[in-house]
User: Fold these one by one.
Assistant:
Number 1:
Amino acid sequence: MSNLCFLDTETSGLNVNKHTILQVSFIITDELLNERLAFTQYIRPYDSEIDEDALKINKLYDYASFTPPSIVAQNLKTVFEKYEPLNLVGWNVSFDWDFLRKFSRETDLGLERYFTYAPLDVRSMAFSEFYNKVRPISLHQGDVGKRLDIEYNGELHNAETDVRLTLEIFKKLHNMK
């Protein structure tokens, strides 16, 4: 079986056509969810708009000091080559996957070749778990974490915190912890 690659990003806005990734975090696990690697990188914005409302949420104001995209792409390539094939997992993962694919196209990373199957969305799994059990249902990541009695360190809307919380929610939903 392939390794699982839990993903979270923080971006300069919500529109993949106008905005870019500012922070990317991965946790790669084996099929039993044993952590193999945790990876976080801050990416200097390139040729994109910066939405001040997004920065108020993710607090990534110091983006001028972040790592250039070409270096981040090389670092990602090194990690992905070591652990491929990977199954992508995330919270509302289509959002992060769209931004990561855009980053891949713009940096010639060739991202898709490292991943198998369609991404797994933990938010959808939580919806399925709680749909007939909880009213009203909240699918905010922090609310789901609280409902599952998961404690997390750090602030939400930080990719490192969010990806770790996604992994813990996934474990709880699959009774693997």
Number 2:
Amino acid sequence: MGEPILARVDVVHRAGVEAALGADAPSELAVRLSDGRTLAVAFAPAQGWTEVAAVDITETVQRGRDGDRIFELSNDLVCTATTDGRFLRLSPSVRDILGYAPEDILRREFINLVHPDDQAATLRELGTLADGVVTVGFTNRYRHANGDWRSLQWAATPDAETGLIYAIARDVTEELSLRAALAVARDAAESASRAKSAFLAHMSHELRTPLNAIIGYSEMIVDEAEDDGAATGVIDDVRTILEAGHQLLMLINGILDVSKIEAGRVELFLEQVSLVDVLNTVEATIRPIAERRGNTVRVTHDGTPWLLTDRLKLQQILLNLLANAARFTDHGTVCLDVRVDGDGVVLVVSDDGIGMTDDDIGRVFAPFEQASASIGARFGGTGLGLFIARRFATLLGGSIRVESALGRGTTFTVWLPRGGLSRGADAQAVTGGYLVVVEAPREATEGRATAASTAPRA
């Protein structure tokens, strides 16, 4: 290497280059030039001169420096190991993670630091790495210097050329503890929810028995009072009791339905249902309720004759939607329009009542929720009807969507399949695991097919 080239060598490396040029034996040096580049230089002495070969390794050196910085600064444990289970290099973060100085565990068999229950799996994973397979997400426990066990999650890759393993491990001890605590809390919450649902179902049955007696006797008293020509005031008072009893019974039935839904104990009874008959029944039930607020009820259909569904669930869906429309409409119109839609039927309940905002729509199907507290206080209701309607529609293989604008009314659109639970889907998928439905033979559809409740247990 001549004088002009030697002058380009960084002053820190210049003495080493001069020594290599004057040496009798071959040598190699990494030489940094004044322009910042790094060369790998080989010196081969000959008769009266020295042969020099140089390769630019600037990028390689820089990558090595970057790797060293990452190695030194990483909060995770970064290491190089042999396939026979010894650490060759450890990042300083091992002090924070396991409490050891790197030099304390270098070249020791790290299997001795692994929890006895995890050693077999660790050795299998080490063998997999020795076979050239990358490890991702393997977790084992290492003994901390203070005697505790820390859970480490590993990502490792083998290098076929060097026979070494390059790995990084993250301490996931707290994360796993949090997951376990969350699982316990979830199980406790689910158990409490099941207990609550069982309690509500039991109490609802206990309340309905005397309430049905109150309603029944009130009806008898009204009939007898009318026959005997009793004073109008007395009859009106008994009718008030009767109406209050019916409202309370509807509330209890709603709570019972919610508890059954949450407990996965809903039963379906599939049969060939005359949609016209259902519409007539629903209209007769809802008309007096709507007329008390000065509303007009309009029901239209295209002659859709039959569909295979649960009659009572269908009636309850429509009654809940229509009662909701009548409650929030004054001196307006409540409409029910029914039409065939391919292999299903569409039932549209609309009104020209107070309507809802976008925020209200987001809450309207939640149990015990209403559009707002002020609306609940003004119009009454429990917030159960729409929740039950949507869940029943889902159980029947259908859906409900809502459109509304504040001050411009609300429209609920129900889609239900005509020939069973869904468009070719099996019952388990449609119901989300609530039921498996057993349909009656074709000749028995004038009677009632049965559905077996098969709610899975956690």
Number 3:
Amino acid sequence: MTRILAVDDDPELLAVLQTKLTAAGYEVETEPDPIKGLQRVEAEVPDLLILDIRMPILEGREFCIAARDSGFENPIIFLTAMGDIDSRINAYRVGATGFLAKPFDPRLLVERIEHALRSRVTSDSGNRPVLIGNLEHESVPGILEVARLIAERSRTVIETSTEELGSIWMERRLIVDAEFSGKRGRPALDDLLKVDAGVFRVYEESHATTNPLNLQVSDL
């Protein structure tokens, strides 16, 4: 059974998470104290961690950094009242796997957890992804815009709900190539832009191609 640790200074929210996630079939532990929560992460190594961003003493992003520095590699989902793009970028930069704005439907959190657990993979080159998320809540152009902001060279891997894989490569913050369902270049890119269900992962990778598309994200 998947073990989840939820760390939040709001006892009412922790009670809701305990009830809803247990009913969904998870083994759930809760912790209102972020310092004790970090100690439990290191000692118990849960399969997934749910974190509030705004907590006293140890803020959620600092918690995430400390957990990653301690060697914790399992998914981390942030819960926050801040849903702007900058907050998302900062969350992903410190090691978050997913991001959910409050208030939220518990069913959406369960869905996010399932996607996060399925996305525990590394790229072909062995690099850890710098960005992971759910395509049902982020458009492909929006993902590429975030990738452009956080990495000069990147590969965005799209995994559809039917487990098809596609890739979009960027060099010097320009889209240079794409591959999907037996297609390459612009036809593959056009098909990937229509994908609206599945997961995505962004890696810092270089890519050489003889016929680069050289498209701005704003041109999509």
